[in-house]
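Progress against Task 2.4 (sequence-to-structure conversion) is shown through the following example record, which the project officer requested during the mid-term review.
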Amino acid sequence: MKKAFCLPFIILLASVALRASTEETGAWSGAVSGLRGRLIVKDGETFHGTRLPAVYLELENVSDVGNQMEFFFDPMGSIESSVTDAAGKEVEQSPTPADILSPGPFWLALPNDGSLRFRISVSGYGIFENSGTDIQMSSGNWIIKPADKNKYYLAATFESKPPASDRRRAWTGSLKLPRVLIPH
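Structure tokens generated for the chain above:
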């Protein structure tokens, strides 16, 4: 009786594991004034048969000063991204209509030896039915066709420039975030 119960249970567990979310984590960037970052791409939702990966930025305070860091983040201007193939050739953006709603710029704080992970992909681009994988970022939109089995990578640059009128001692600079594989 136990063997008859165990086999279906093992099959169920294996099927759940196969459906588990795929997550690709990029390498850390070099540290700039005590801050480093990386990209993470996860399976996201599917809409009209098209996969919409969720892209996250993870930042880490690696300064040796022992202080909290503050930095300014503009959802529509702090991230510049690109998609390339395995050879490093840039992929052209897909011409799609867009209506992206985004919060205004805001301040973030990162404690000493702390990390912060938040979503930087957007929604609001037109989605074509069964078009494969659609990478929607504030700086562009890329579609990988369903039959395309090549490997593609997302790379980005994070830049923080506080308003000139603000007198905080904030982190300013630019991080070149290494590429990360796009699961598709």
